[in-house]
Each structure stands twice: as C-alpha cells, then as structure tokens.
Amino acid sequence: MFRSVVYLMMALVGGNVFADADWVPLRGGAFLSALNYEDVDRIQVAPFALQVRPVTNAEFFAFVSTHPQWRRNKVPSVFAELRYLSHWAGPLELGAQADPQQPVVQVSWFAAAAYCEAHHARLPTWTEWEFAAASDATRSDARADPRWRERILEWYSKPSNKPLSHVGSTPPNVYGVQDMHGLVWEWTEDFSALLVDSDNRSQGDPDQAQFCGAGSLATRDRDNYAVLMRIAMLSSLDAEDTTANLGFRCAKDLK
Amino acid sequence: MKLFSCRRILGVAMVLASLIAGGCGRDYYAEPAAPAVVVKDTGGSAKGDFGPPQGEPIKAVLTSPPMVPPATGRNAPAKVVVELDVAEKEMPISEGVTYTFWTFGGTVPGSFIRVRQGDTVEFHLRNLPDSKMPHNIDLHGVTGPGGGAASSFTAPGHASQFTFKALNAGLYVYHCATAPVGMHIANGMYGLILVEPPEGMPKVDREYYVMQGDFYTAGKYREKGHQGFDMQKGIDENPTYVLFNGMEGSMTGDKALTAKVGENVRLYVGNGGPNLVSSFHVIGEIFDKVWYEGGTQFQQNVQTTLIPAGGAAIMEFHLEVPGSYVIVDHSIFRAFNKGALAILKADGPENKAIYSGKEVDEVYLGDRAAPNLAAVATATQSASVGELTVEQQVEAGKALFAGTCSACHQSNGEGLPGVFPPLAKSDYFAADPQKLPQVILHGLTGPVTVSGKEFDSVMPPMSQLTDDEVANISTYVLNSWGNPGGRVTKEEAAKMRQVAPAITAEAH
User: Fold this and answer.
1) Strand, coil or helix: what is B194?
2) Is B155 in Cβ contact with A241 (below 8 Å)?
3) Is residue B22 left, alpha or beta, with left meaning phi > 0 and alpha meaning psi from -120 to 50?
4) Cα torsion angle, A222, A189, A156, A86, sign
C-alpha cells in the first residue's frame, strides 16, 4: 500500500526546487544570533533555500526504499543507534506508529545528512535555522515579543505522550516556512559546534575556553529560553543519536 | 573504620552561662557536671574518606515521597549503585488541574536516596526515550565542580554514569541543572539525598520525606484543566502554587502522614524552590530537635525553621496529644491560598494533663460594639421585638461567619479540599437544614461525605455562640453560595442545643 505514497513523494522531491511548494527562498542578511560571536556583532546570512516543512515518514520511507544502506537493519551502528526508525513496523514498513504525514523522528544526524545529500541539498546550519525560526507570521524578527517566546515555551511544557501532529499543521511564518516551532526538534548541520556547557550554570566562567567552532556557550540573550533550550537539546546529542522528538529538514545554497 | 572525632567545649558558651547565672538569684549553672554547649567538629570532607568500598556493591533502595528508605545499617563504606529515571509526565497539581512535571523517578519531589558517609556512589541517570528534553543532576552532596551536572548531561533515551564519594554527612538537595535551570526546577526536578553520619541517625519510630516547591502556571490558582508553565511568573517570583510534595492535598485526608501518641517522628524536609524560602512549621508541635540546614548540629525546642531554596533540614518531635497537626509554610498565605498545607494525624489516647481541649465556653461581649458587628446588633434588636427578617439574619450571619467560621470553611464557603468540607452547594445541608445548627452547636468528628467528597477531621462544638447567633449563621449559609435558601430560627437553635448529644460521624 505504500508504493503509491512512495511514488507520490518521489515525484514531489524530484522536481525543480522552486517549481513546487516544498521549498522557499530566504534572502538572508545581517542577523543577530542568540549566540555570542567573538569577532562580529551581526553575522551575515547568505541567501539560502529551506524546506517548508520537516521531512515526513513517507518521504523518509521513499529514501530508504531507494537507499537500502539506510534501512534500520542495514545501517552500521556508528551511523545510527539502536533506536533508529524503531517506531516503524519494519525496515520497509511504516505501520501503525508512524503516520506517513508525521515528521520522521528517531533519525540520526548521519541519516538526516544522507537524506539531504540524496536530494542535492544539505542540513541547514544553526544560523540559517535560527534566522528562519526568528520570525512569526508577519515579522522577520519576532524574538523580542514575549508572546513569541510564550508560544514556543508552551510546546516545551507539553508532555510528549501523544502522537506527533502532521507536518504543516502550524501557521506559515513570514517566509512561508512551517513547523519551525511546536512540532519537533530539528538537526542542524553544525549541531556539534554548539558548545553549550552541559552544566548550563557555568556559562559565566571566564576561565573556560568558550570560543570554538561556530557557536560559543555564552549566549547573548540569556532571557531567550526558547532558543536556549533548543541549543541545549542539540548539544546533548551525538551524531548517531536519535530521539522520539527529533527530526530534520533540508536546506540549499542559493546562488 | 573508626572516625576520628574531636570534641571541644565552647569557652564562649561557658562565659555566657556564668553571666546568665550571675544575673539571676539562683545559681542554675553551679553544678560542675552541667552540660555546656558542645560542638562536635566532624572534620568535614577532609575526614570523610573512610577508604575504599568494602564488600559487594549494593543497589540503593529508592523511595517515593513521603516515604524514606531504611537506614543503611552499615559500619563500613560500600559501593552503592543508584539508578534514577528521568520522566516527563502529566500529573495532577491540584484537584481538576494537571501540569506537565519533569521528574526524577516519576514523582515530585524525586526519589529519596540514602547512603552513608564514606560510601562510593555509582550514579546512573537514565532519561526515558519519550522525554522531550535533555536533563542532568547536580547533587549538593557531591564534592566536585557542578555536583555531577556536567557528567550527567543526558539526551532523551540515553543513560549517563558518574561516581562520587560522599565525603560530608548531611541532608542534601539534588536537582536538574540543564538550561533553563529555573524551568527545570520549577517543573519539579529536585529531591533529597541523605548522607548518614558513620554512627547513623538516632533511632526514631517514624521517618517522613517532605519537600516544598513553588510552581508557576499560566492559569490562576485552581483554574481547572491542563496548565502550562509561565516563565514570566517564574522570573517575577510570583508563584501560583506553593506545595508540599508536588500536589495540593498530597498529604491530607486519606493521604495524611500518620503516627501514634508516644512516638518520635522525624521529618526530612527539603526546599526545591526555585524561588521561595520556606518558614516550615507544624501547627501544635514544637520541634524537639532541628538539624538546621541539614547539617550536623541540632538546635532544640524550635517553633519554625527556615529552609532556603536548595536547602534542607531534619526535624524531630515527640507526640503527646492525639489529633491533626497541620504542616505549613508559615508565610501563611502560601498555606491557605497557594496550597502549602499537609496533615500529620496522631492517633492515641487523650492526655488532658498536657492539653485540655476547650475548658470554658462563655459569652464575652468585649468587642460587640465594633462597627463590623452592627448587623448583629440590629438583628438582636429586631429579634427582641419579634420583627427579625431573613435579610437581617443573613446580614448578621455574614458578619458572624467571617469571625467564627471562615478561617476553616473559607469566606467563599468552599472549604479546603481534603481538610475542611465545603458549605457552598453542600448536599449535606440541602437534605436537612437542621443539620446546620446541629453541627455548629455539637461539632462533627470523623468521616463524613459532602458533595461526593470524603473528609475525616474534627470540627469542635461552637457552643459559645448564642441561639441567635447560631440561627443567623445557619440562615446566612442557607442563603449563600448557591445553597437552596431557607431559615433557621432562634427557637430551632435553642431546641437543637438541648436535644442532640455530641455527634460523631454518621453513615451517609
């Protein structure tokens, strides 16, 4: 029964990036990250394209159908831990616990990166993700609005004892992107460079080597718990890890 | 292994004692054997390492509140394995109100951990697969940066392990320290670890585990349904609930702590915060001993002890008189308006020599002329000339109710769940309005069902009230808060005063 779904999905993702509704272009520009950067105040975000919604079970099913090495019974454990796609009924069967239109979860960073690569794309960087997620329906940067933060925290304070919603069930932001908040955590290409200390309270310790890679563990905006929690979540992970609330979407450079 | 212990006598205390003795006629302190203040110097962490663990590793017994694990009963250091699961789960925070708690061991507060000083603790923190958040643990009983926090940072569906030696004896808070720390603690991520001194804790008859915490919900206090976390209220330190053991009514009614007259009771009490400091008090008891701040020294004969957020205390008291002892945060609006209230019920024979109960009931007219009792005066006057209206009775009853009844039954007549039954929309009185003067005059003891809820407590007789007053309070209750209306007359009250013996609970 999944053959038709697979066929449909392959048709969608196989087309021209901007001919279908799955991708949107973002112009980028100077952006004030919640992370502190050593050398610059605002960082320059280059133009990029982002998938409108997180990748679904159906889309990921199509991927493992054509890329057998990423099936859960084939994948080496260094690339995906035991729980990789464990909510699926079988290596090639979604089953009752994995609705085709739910975002795919229990995916490792390696698997997510491979999916994007297979679609001539890549995972978004943290900065790109943060840039796209800073908006609401009418503003490109809504982060100073307490209501924006409250809405995000509201998702954090709900238990994950209910099935995930379908993708596309939250309103589009100003770029037309959906589900940046309120559905799942998402992998970023450079998640391992988000050096948030695993003991959050030591952030102010000047003796620690805080600057390395893309992000620093000193956040600029300490009140912005909504963003802080996402960074904390990503920094608790290794690239082979999977969780029941962690999915992904892909990005592309725009020339 | 024998602990090196050093005792020294505080010279200051001796000087102070002799000064006091000199100041009053009788020399209480002349006896050379009189105990001065003795401070035991434990030597702290430098003297807390009793060498490598002996024998096979032991799996720690973890208990859910309000229970405490048994004493370790060991006289040598051991390796103790602690396995603690982190679970994010929806649970009731008050009646008809749910909240998403983040827990150590599935309860708020988290599981009680009990080890002995010098033990090597192998700690396993396991974050359940369906958790949304990464979590970690900082145990205040750990010697080392972060208290274990960095070593235990654990993604959903993962487990971490670290090991520490418990070098200092005492009662310590543990809590989650993942960003944002305040939110993790506000959601219930705290508990207690007791590090017994080498000689163990003195034997008592009962031990209980109580922990206070403040909670910040989007809705108001007791607003029904699922309530989300309100970060702004947390930052403003303006809690919606202040609770013992994570739920309003966690230790009242059927779930009250129990003990018997003649027993020694010990409470291990922590304060998770995140914000408030607790003025911990047991109404009607005096703590014989308080190991203040959870440390090694105890203070004696204490009424209220202060427990800082992220701190703990141990208290002990001997029970002489039966009855219900109400445990509160004596920042008292928290007890009656935010939920910080629990009950310890002591069973056993009365001891009238220590506490008599009410001995005298007599009319005292000292403040009858006060303006707030003008309605009462009017009613009395009208009654005397036979022109008393229901409205006058209600007005007078309202003033009397505020003074006599509202402390327990609340000014809105809704009582307190599990403790004081509601009068509002009460099916108990709707069936028979004459029960009102009956209960007011003769009290009510034991189990009773009111509007489908069971209560088991004591209302003393209010026989100091005059027949007029009983009639007016009864009429006010009948005509308030959705009750069916009606009237109780002075004559009916007088009759009730004569006929009914003291009632205990009836079958309903």
Assistant:
1) strand
2) yes
3) alpha
4) negative
How far does chain B reach from its first CA to its final CA, in angstroms? Answer: 62
Alpha-helix residue ranges (DSSP H) falling in B187-305: 231-235
Task: State the DSSP code for B310.
Answer: T
* pLDDT one-digit tens code per residue, B45-82: 999 999 999 999 999 999 999 999 999 999 999 999 99
Classify burial at B389, counting beta carbons within 10 Å of its beta carbon; exposed 0-12, middle 13-18, buried 19 or more: exposed
CA pseudo-torsion sign A48, A49, A52, A55: negative
Report yes or no: B238 and B109 within 8 Å, Cβ to Cβ. Answer: no
Rounded CA-CA distance B184/B190 in Å is 9
Q: For residue B254, how many other CB atoms are within 10 A of its CB?
A: 9
Q: Kindly report the pTM of this predicted structure.
A: 0.71
d(CA B495, CA B490): 9
Alpha carbon B349 to chain centroid, angstroms: 24
Best mutation site among A152, A186, A243, A245 for testing chain B: the one with the most B CBs within 10 Å?
Answer: A243
- pLDDT for residue B2: 39
d(CA B187, CA B214): 9
Give the SS3 label for residue B332: coil
Portion of chain B with pLDDT greater than 70, in percent: 88
Kindly report, residue by residue over B165-193, the tens digit of the pLDDT. 999 999 999 999 987 889 999 999 999 99
Q: Is the Cβ of B150 closer than 8 Å to some Cβ of chain A?
A: yes
Q: A5-14, B51-60, B406-415, B420-429: which has the highest mean pLDDT?
A: B51-60
Q: Do B179 and A198 touch (CB under 8 A)?
A: no
CA distance A60 to A81: 17
Contact: A237, B155; criterion CB under 8 Å: yes
Q: First vs last Cα of chain A: how many Å apart?
A: 40
Residue in chain A lying closest to B178 (CA): A200
CA distances from A91 to A72, A84, A185, A210 (A): 6, 10, 23, 42
- For residue A132, the distance in angstroms to the closest alpha carbon of chain B comes to 22
B358 touches chain A (CB under 8 A): no
The CA–CA distances, whole Å, from B138 to A163, B181, B278, B397 equal: 32, 11, 21, 55
With contact defined as beta carbons under 8 Å apart, do B88 and A244 qualify? no
d(CA B100, CA B452): 27
CA–CA gap between residue B249 and residue B455 (Å, rounded) = 12
**Kindly report the CA angle at A21 between A20 and A23, in degrees rounded to 5?**
95
| Subunit contact B177:A233, Cβ cutoff 8 A | no
- The predicted pLDDT at position B500 comes to 58
Q: Is B231 close to A225, i.e. CB distance below 8 A?
A: yes
Structure tokens at B310: 């992220």
Which residue's entry shows tokens 């995972």? Answer: A123
Residue type, B488: V
- Per DSSP, B152 falls in state G
Q: Is there a contact between A153 and B228 if contact means CB atoms under 8 Å apart? A: yes
